[in-house]
Amino acid sequence: MKRDSFSSRMGVLAAAAGSAIGLGNIWRFTYLMGDNGGAAFFIIYLASVILIGLPIMIAEFTIGRNTQKNPIGAFRSLVPKSAWPLTGWLGIIAAFSVLSFYGVVGGWTLYYLVRSISQSFLQFSPDQYATIFTNYIENPLIPILTQLIFMGLTFAIVVRGIQSGIEKYSKLLMPLLFLIVILIDIVALTMPGASEGLAFIFKPDWSKVDMNVIVMAVGQAFFSLSLGMGTMLTYASYIGKQQDLKKTALQVTVADTLVAVLAGVAIFPAVFSFNIDPTSGPGLVFITLPAVFGKMPFGQIVGPAFFLLLAIAALTSAISILEVLVAYFGEELKWGRKKATIISTVLLTLIGMIASLSNGIWNNDAFFGMNFMDFLGAFSSNYCLPIGGFFIAVFVGWRMKPEWSNQELLIGAKSARGNKLILWLLRTLVPAAIIVVFLSGIGVIG
Ligand code: PHE
Description:
With 446 residues, the chain is an all-alpha fold.
């Protein structure tokens, strides 16, 4: 497979920000914030993004652009005959488990987009929305149908390659995403109870914070910034040598955080205005929000706009995960892009179908007390991504010769400012923090 590359700086930014900004920012971030005490969670999340996420993103960029390979090939070429390529393998496993359930939720966003367009959809009571949601996800057929459409769209973009697929559509969809979220924010901020919602996001209540909140915040930083799986590594393998990696990583991180905040501002003022409980978990955007749209000014427009926003965000992230697999199959097994994309999409869709059915007819708690769908989510974001991130940090911090990493960071950059600090963080704080968080996540400490 001939290597494609991004054609412009804007293209790189749109694609990488498109990967980072996804269901994680809108669906997952807001319900985690709702469940874990609002502002206090947000502040810990922010600290994790800056101190752990940003250095790891720079590390992934460094490895990717330096080797211009997929996650496994990259480690293999830097340190042949070592165990390091296992880090890449972990990324491939993570890509399978994230995208298979992500495709199901991506399908949910399309379903809600279509349903919210119909006038009558916004007139139910909160209880009825709960029933609508459960009936839908438990149905053996419809969620699979919507999943197929979502995966079909993901396929259609990735099969076109980097420049005419991923770059082109990210450049088109990301500005639209920003526009929609800002418009929704404007409506949300004019609601009567807006200030209470804003206080929830910005005024910390530290009494809610325990080790579990910290674990969730760090896991969310990985998930939201698309780290630990080799997604950013893969995208960076298509970045030209004239670009400043540190600057790009910083811009992507800022954009991702900004959208998480904007999503919070879109959701919580409305939630508080209508006296709805913010701690409604994963159902927050699918059960709580339709009820809110039904009551708010311009709800008929804001509702569909919100689900369109969600669908776009999901799509530009899904393509980045599929690309990890396509790059791997294409380069390591020497398949053409078309074959690699078809086979990956089919496999992901099949696993996703099982996940979807595990919400309904195949629902049992056989996977560590969870159904298959929840297990995929927990397994990837609580285990694969942080472990992958740990090894990526240790690799760039300790194993990759400083001359290589330093030099890679210097290429295209105006100065070496910050390089020492980044390397120091990758060597010490980042791995140490991941170990502590990981051990307390699995209940060994804390
Ligand atoms: N960052 C994406 C989101 O916020 C999800 C994702 C995770 C994408 C891991 C790629 C890799 O929804």
